[in-house]
Amino acid sequence: MHIGLISDTHGLLRPEALAALQGCARIIHAGDIGKAAVLDGLSALAPLDVIRGNIDTADWAQALPERLDLRIDGLRLHVLHDLKELDVDPVVAGINVVIAGHSHQPCIERRDGVLYINPGSAGPRRFRLPISVALLRLEDGDAQAELIRLD
Q1: Stretch (H or E) spanning 43
Q2: Cα 2 to Cα 11: distance, rounded to the nearest angstrom
Q3: Which of the ends of the chain has fewer CB neighbours closer than 10 A, N or C?
């Protein structure tokens, strides 16, 4: 199963991001959406799981959760906006994948058997950081991720 990961769109849904996420079975937005229209565009591609980020303060965003715990294909995924606010030990909690945004810095790393993914920012460029999304592949109880640069 392929899951598209996107974060920090800040109201901008790039055509390149939509193209990169085309064909995903599911999409996860890790916050700082910016505008409800971003969610409309993403949900037209695939079922969408979404959390609220620190800029998502408008009325439309108030019903969105700040964190999600998902079980997909037998794996546990924990989604939050800012990794610095992670207040559980993923190993102890049995979490296989932690997905976070906020920093705009794309990153994939495995620590103590837990896969940590920041898809980076798919919105307006910040400093000299790349524009990116990520793909999460779940297969046979294993999780692998790949960053996709859009710039």
Answers
A1: helix 36-43
A2: 24
A3: C
The three-state secondary structure class of 54 is coil
Supply the pTM of this predicted model. 0.96
Instruction: State mean pLDDT over 117-133.
Output: 93
48-50 vs 26-29, strand pairing mode = parallel
Q: Residue 79 in contact with residue 28, Cβ under 8 Å?
A: yes
Contact 22, 46 (CB under 8 A): no
Phi and psi (nearest 5°) for 121? -105, 130
Which H, E and C letters describe 102-125, residue by residue? Answer: CCCCCEEEEECCEEEEECCECCCC
Residue 35 CB-density burial (10 A; 0-12 exposed, 13-18 middle, 19+ buried)? middle
